[in-house]
Amino acid sequence: MDLIPPAPVLARPALSRLERRSGRRRLLAMRSRSGAALCFAFAAFPAAAFPRRAGRRFGRARGAALRAKKPAPMPETQRVYPAKDLCSRCGLCNTSLISKVQSACAFLGHGMLRIDSLESRVHGRQRTEEELYFGVAQHGIHSIRTKPQHAPKTRTAWTGVVTAIACEMLRSNKVDAVLCVASKGDGAQLEPKPILARTEAEVLSSGGVKPMLSPNLLPLEELWQVRGGEIRRLLFIGVGCQVQALRAVEEDLGLEELYVLGTNCVDNPRSPEALQRFLKSASEFPDTAAGFEFMQDNRIHVKHSDGRYERIPVFSLKDPQMCTGVIAKSCYACFDYVNALTDLTVGYMGAPWEGKEMTQHSQYCVVRNAKGQEMLEIAKDRLRMGEVDLEVPGRVDRFGLLPQVLKPELDLAFGRRKASVGPPRWLAELLCELLTRLGPQGLDFARASIERATVRNLVCLEAMRGQKGSPRTSAELGVPRHAARIREKYQDLYEELLAAYSDGTVQ
Ligand SMILES: Cc1cc2nc3c(=O)[nH]c(=O)nc-3n(C[C@H](O)[C@H](O)[C@H](O)COP(=O)(O)OP(=O)(O)OC[C@H]3O[C@@H](n4cnc5c(N)ncnc54)[C@H](O)[C@@H]3O)c2cc1C
Ligand code: SF4
Ligand code: SF4
Questions:
Q1: Is 183 helix (H, G, I), strand (E, B) or coil?
Q2: Most buried residue among 77, 222, 282, 487 by CB atoms closer than 10 A?
Q3: Cβ atoms of residues 216 and 195 within 8 Å
Q4: DSSP string, 333-346
Q5: DSSP reduced 3-state for 236
Q6: Nearest ligand to the C-alpha of residue 328?
Q7: How confident is the model at residue 274 (pLDDT cuts 50, 70, 90)?
């Protein structure tokens, strides 16, 4: 276990060269600037927070580590984090594992470049060329859905595959707790509240997407404090940036068993205000929105709290220029759409369009390793798998579509989108129909989405290097091998876009 000792001078010998150069000093300087936060940095948990019996059970060395002084977590009210603007508020800094931030944060040091080595550690090997887009898939990629009798009854959104698996993991006593994202409730249904769920009812309360940055590692502090006690086997549910940080501190958690179940993730809104701004632009009834998703029919589906659905063509956003600044800056520097370090990833975009409501639709899953396969086995009575062929040829080549979509997206990111009148609704609907019937489908639709996000983010990341508010280390932030390979496929387009946007500022 790597701990920050209570005095900075003692910390030095334990730091890597990279940490000495940039990380710890910056962290300390930043905390000094934020006044009272410095006191937090050197406060320590009382050793009494950890029961004595933990020391006996884990052996003397571990017991000593447990009782050792730990750096205090940053308070949740903290405004500036080590990764500054690029912080995805994953929650790690709000735990005493903050001592690991330089090597764990997906947006510090080499950042997401670490996916390459973490893939080897977690899955035993890196992804092959065939696995370029979806990551290591040792047990295949399959369609997946819940059996009708197990479909969620009261869910705010989505199909319930993830929560069904999590419930079965608890029921079969494979894990003691599930770390998942419930809702803040009380008028803030779409805002995330990560919890350590100990019952099926608590797991079910996490159903549906809370489309916002979520501090998923925060409950690890609770787990950390009771470790050696009730929670020794954990199922963690989260998105790519959270899972990367989790994998980096996995060894420090002292768990007997860790399972990681994740979802795809892209373009997360940065705050409640940003989410409302987007909903106002998309929906006629933003106040009752209970969930939304960009679906494979090229429409935004909004589910409302009274059970109604709205389907809005992507070309029909009202005042799209108002959506600049909605997406978190971390998501413009993210190269882990498919959550490569999970044991099992679930998403919707690789399932061909079935013409159903978002909560009824098939999903797809990537089974990365034996633990992922084990989770599916445990939940098999609740699930139907492999019913749908995911490889569906589209009639229009996806390579030709990318330039058309990237320019407006980059204009939005860089605040260059102009107010303009979109096509009339009937034309927007027609365009969506044509695109859905002729364009990429199934896994090819997903590949197109991954390429779009990857090339856009490569351009954004280059522009953000050294930009005010980005972490000073951003010059070192690397891109994983798969992103570099996708860049090669679109080298000319990438260079053209880079020339057009590299002097701009990601908003
Ligand atoms: C922010 C976000 C963006 C997504 N974008 C895409 C996308 O572009 N393409 C795609 O194919 N799929 C995307 N997904 C995944 C998709 O929306 C579904 O979550 C997934 O397919 C699982 O559906 P389900 O019905 O099985 O989930 P459910 O059974 O409803 O369970 C959902 C689970 O998601 C977790 N969760 C909810 N909100 C968050 C959050 N903010 N951060 C971390 N975990 C959370 C909860 O813990 C819960 O266990 C995204 C998910 C999230 C959270
Ligand atoms: S992304 Fe997570 S680890 Fe990185 S600075 Fe933010 S809270 Fe800390
Ligand atoms: S898009 Fe990437 S950075 Fe943003 S919340 Fe999702 S996984 Fe994290």
A1: strand
A2: 282
A3: no
A4: G---TT-TTSSEEE
A5: strand
A6: 3
A7: very high
Helix (H, G, I), strand (E, B) or coil at 361: coil
CA distance 295 to 287: 21
127-149 pLDDT, tens digit per residue, is: 999 999 999 999 999 999 999 88
Both tokens of 188, joined, read: 């803030």
Q: Which residues line ligand 2 (CB under 6 A)?
A: 81-83, 87-90, 92-93, 101, 105, 107, 245
* 34 Cα: distance to centroid of ligand 1 (angstroms): 34
Strand partners, 234: 177, 258
Contact residues for 220 (Cβ-Cβ < 8 A; gap 6+): 91, 92, 95, 97, 179, 246, 249, 253
What is the 58 CA–ligand 2 centroid distance (Å)?
Answer: 29
At CB < 8 A and 24+ separation, what contacts does 12-20 make?
Answer: 16/102, 16/103, 18/102, 18/109, 18/476, 19/102, 19/103
In angstroms, the Cα distances linking 97 to 85, 249, 251 are 21, 8, 11
User: What is the C-alpha R_g of the chain?
Assistant: 22
Average pLDDT of the chain to the nearest whole number = 84
Of 74-78, 319-323, 377-381, 407-411, the range with the highest mean pLDDT is 377-381
Residue 135's alpha-carbon distances to 99, 111, 128, in angstroms, are 29, 17, 8
**CA-to-CA distance for 495 and 409, rounded, in angstroms?**
16
Query: Any idea which ligand is nearest the CA of 88?
Result: 2
Name the region of 53 (left: φ>0; alpha: ψ -120 to 50; beta: rest).
Answer: alpha
Residue 396 confidence (pLDDT):
78
For residue 89, give the ligand nearest its CA.
Answer: 2
Pocket test residue of 99, 107, 473 for ligand 2, highest count of atoms within 8 A of CB: 107
Tell me the best of 147, 154, 263, 359 to mutate to test the pocket of ligand 1, counting ligand atoms within 8 Å of each CB and taking the most: 263
**Domain residues of the chain, as ranges?**
8-72, 111-269+335-380
Task: Please identify which residue in the block is written with the tokens 């080595």.
Answer: 117
For residues 383 and 381, what is the distance between their CA atoms, to the nearest angstrom? 6
Which pLDDT band, with edges at 50, 70 and 90, does 285 fall under? Answer: very high
Rounded to an integer, what distance in angstroms lies between the CA atom of residue 374 and that of residue 371? Answer: 5
Ligand 3 binding pocket mutation candidate from 210, 236, 268 (most atoms within 8 A of CB): 268
Q: From atom 35 of ligand 1, which residue's Cα is the shortest distance away?
A: 181
